Amino acid sequence: MTPNDFLTKLKALPKAYKIYASVLAAIELVLFFVRPETPGLYIQLPQLLPIIAALPFLFMKNVRHPFSRYMNTYGIIVFAFLAIDYLTRSHAGLFQIVATFIPMMLYWLSLFARWNAKLFKQKEARIALALATLSWGFVAFAFPPLPLGPAMLILLVPWFIVLNKYNRETAVFATFWASMVYNTVNYYWIRNVMNVETAPSGLIFLGLILLIAYLSLFNVLASFVYSTAKNLNIKGKAYLLVLFPIFYASIEVHRTTGDFAFPWNHLGYTFGNHLELLQALSIIGVFGYTILIVASNQIVAYAFLLKSRKRFALFALPFVIFAALLIHGSCVLSAPEAAPFYNAQAQENPAIAMVQPSIAQGAKWSKERFDSIVNKTFKMAMDSTTPDIDLILLAETAVPDHIRRQHEVIKRLHQMADMRNASILTGALDYKHVSFDKNNPRQYEIYNASFLFTPGNHSFPQRYIKKHLVPFSERIPFDDVFPILNYVDLGEGDFVPGKETPVYGPYNWTPYICYDAIFGDLVREAINAGSRLMVNITNDGWFGRSTAPFQHLNIVRHLAISYGYPVARLANSGVSAFIDQYGHYDQNTKIFETRVIQRKMPLKTRSTFYTSIGNTFEKTLLWFFAIYLVALIVIAKLKKFKK
User: I need a surface site. Which of 83, 241, 272, 486 has the fewest CB within 10 A?
Assistant: First the structure.
């Protein structure tokens, strides 16, 4: 569009509409110049005037028609002044935020509801929805401890049939709601956090719905891309579809990066109940498994479109992949050094005790119960461990307070280390005073940390700070990019992430707190620094009696095999376990069982292929994501241009 075309269209707009836009802009301009100097979030009731002024114009046909123009004009003007206010003063009005986003969200939700109602009236859309829900519903039961993992090579076939048979709009509609069902089954356990005494239940429930919708959008993107790519042939060949399994894996890699990272339910985690099927992780990693799973399902769905005998060979592909994984895994595990916890009694290996006190999450942060909680944990550590132990592990936030405030607890831990002649690793909170400015919302940095007490050393213990914080639970994403977010209090932990990856001697082990242990980049970083053992302390009591603790353990096991990296994993309420470098379990505890488990733990002696290529492979997938989308857009434009 040329400037002259734009001016012509602008002149053609109704006079009443121009008055509407001018009134909104004038009100916002006045409010902009009378804004207060208050830092962060401030309250100024007149900032509701734009929405009040916009309401009378709804009764003017020339303004409200088309309604999309009416709403988009409002949204653009009020958002522009909100952005200018923040960029010039680093603050924002609470009422202006409400007046900006609430009307637009209601408008978008109404459009979404109308779109869904339109499609649900169509018979084809309802059939597509049923097929996609059947497919993703079964996938939800494939993650350990649930049993359908080996069937993953065919469970997505109905979904791919939907993608092949129906148009893009229908495929996206069916995929979104099927993914909502899938993610609800996968993440239902987050609602258990609402049972904690201090939890803001309403916000948690709303957050759960938003999380499920957000995670569903990744599958929506995949369906949109596939439905577009299937119509874009290059010289008669659907090259983009051939590469789709790699693109899907690249989506999973993106879900593993950034402040919103949530790498919980990658498709490659579904084989976790069968150790033989997991051994190829040491070569291709979990994203390689995702590529195999997606390719298998896509090819079988394609075979249904064929009428030649060739389709029977394609139908056999899932069985070929399954057999290859099984045979490879059986061969790997048949080697003498792959025996469970091979050579554990070697002198270089540490004897580790893990204390699982099963403190109820609702009671954990009660000041009245602090002494009884600490006493129970410490008594178990002293009474139930053998004299030959080298390292005693206490769970994440086993000391449920900022440890610097608990001088007697620090003293007791030093005494325990001396009496046992063993190092003690405990989880606790910590803080650092960073600002004396009363207007600074972050006068203190708060850390979720672990502390290592060593015998004979009574100085302040060595500290590790958790590096990957759970989004919205422990930290609001991008609070370092947008400092105003530090003024927001949704009941989150408001922690600051750590930056260092320690390797503690003499056994060259590295601590990981909870969520840290499911990120491959942190594992590679520690191994490159010389680490030979992961010590993972966590508190999965938030999850209650659900599938989540088992899912968490399954992910850690996958990383242990991928990198040949043994794990001593302690969870406050279970599941605690020892995992060797081939993925064998030992002494798995039950959920909410009070127990101490201990053994000699063999250190890492195995260097896997994926350790060498993992970083490059995952970065390549990140780039592949962008290249694939650019190629999709360019080819679509060229095809449209030729028409």
Answer: 83
127-165 pLDDT per residue, tens: 999 999 999 999 999 999 999 999 999 999 999 999 999
| pLDDT at residue 212, as a whole number | 92
Q: Do residues 406 and 397 touch, judged by C-beta distance below 8 A?
A: no
Give me the residues paired with residue 475 across strands: 471
CA distance 338 to 578: 15
Cβ pair 457, 426 in contact under 8 A: no
The burial class, CB within 10 Å (0-12 / 13-18 / 19+), for 247 is buried
> What residues form DSSP beta bridges with 427?
450
Residues of the chain short of pLDDT 50, as ranges, are: none
Whole-number Cα distances in Å, 591 to 19, 360, 545, 595: 65, 11, 7, 10
DSSP code per residue over 79-94:
HHHHHHHHHHHSEEEH
- In angstroms, the first-to-last Cα distance of the chain is 21
CB 580, CB 340: distance < 8 Å: yes
In the block, tokens 């009070």 appear at: 594
Q: Alpha helix (H) ranges present in 15-167?
A: 15-33, 49-54, 61-64, 67-89, 94-120, 123-139, 152-155, 157-165
Nearest Cα residue to 270 out of 560, 558, 35, 541: 558
Residues 6+ apart with CB under 8 A from 330: 276
Coil, strand or helix at 599: strand
Dist. CA 125–CA 119, nearest whole Å? 6
Q: How far is CA 504 from CA 11, 422, 530, 532, 535, in A?
A: 72, 14, 10, 10, 11
Structure tokens at 175: 């995929």
pLDDT at 258: 84
- How is residue 499 written in tokens? 């930056």
